[in-house]
Octaprenyl diphosphate synthase (Venatoribacter cucullus), 322 residues
Amino acid sequence: MQIKDIHNVVGSEFQQVNELIHAQLASRVPLVEKIAEYIINSGGKRIRPLLVLLTARAFNECDERAVKLATVIEFLHTATLLHDDVVDTSDMRRGNPTANAKWGNAPSVLVGDFLYSRSFEMLVELACLPVMQILSKATSVIAEGEVLQLTNVKNPDTTEQQYLDVIYGKTAMLFEASTWGMASLLGRSEAEREALRIYGRELGLAFQLIDDVLDYEGDAAAMGKNVGDDLAEGKPTLPLIHAMANGNDEQRKLVRAAIRKGGLENMSDVLAIVHELGSIEYTREKAVACANRAQAQLELLADSPAKQALAALAMLAVQRNT
């Protein structure tokens, strides 16, 4: 099953999400609409709203509530992208100039704030306290993950656990909130809610682990961002952490220096080291383990195209090259 097949399982509802997204971007301030429309329309797989819809479809309740929650999730995600690009001083995302590169940092941050606010307006309309609790907590965890990542920049002593804490906050938390939130909105059993929560978390971890692999061996044109961005920013991702834990003194010294300095001056040397030490393979294996744990959670669900799509999505997360 390919990504287009997965989308087709909830094709009509996905179209409704796109329509609601554009309807909810309306603002009396033209620049707000302009920037929000730009980032929303700039591409992306929209995996998080897809997870919401597939979860609802798996329980045969993919209705207007699912469409609204999926839109809320996409707005929250888009807000984090606007803020992240400012923090990371990124100038390219999904093959296009970032909003901050086109309009500046201040408008990007403020439009991100607008999307956060609009998402919570819509969340109130759903009138489901458990979902409000999940998403309000998620926004806090996401912010903490970003701050934790910021404190680890150019820190070669970052541990694997600290790295996992970062990617849980910055990526996996919103995946988790997507599936867990939808199961909670439908009032499913505690066992079902917990299974979908773990599925989302493990899928999100797998997704980010592969993102960090692709920073060292991806195709810039296909990914729509620069290969080596993480190293250039001095981010100690898992391939580097593994290399420092398993390399000889000379290799550790070079990787540590590359993290502390940032930039791409030592990119070719770092690439040689992470490949020689099996650090890329190690990170991929971690991602596959997460994907397998995600799939295992689906045993509670009745067999259906939606369940098959959720299982396929876990495997696609670790097989992708973009």
Observations:
- Confidence is low (pLDDT under 50) at residues 220-225.
- The first helix runs from residue 3 to 9.
- The beta strands are 92-93, 96-97.
- The two ends are 17 Å apart (CA to CA).
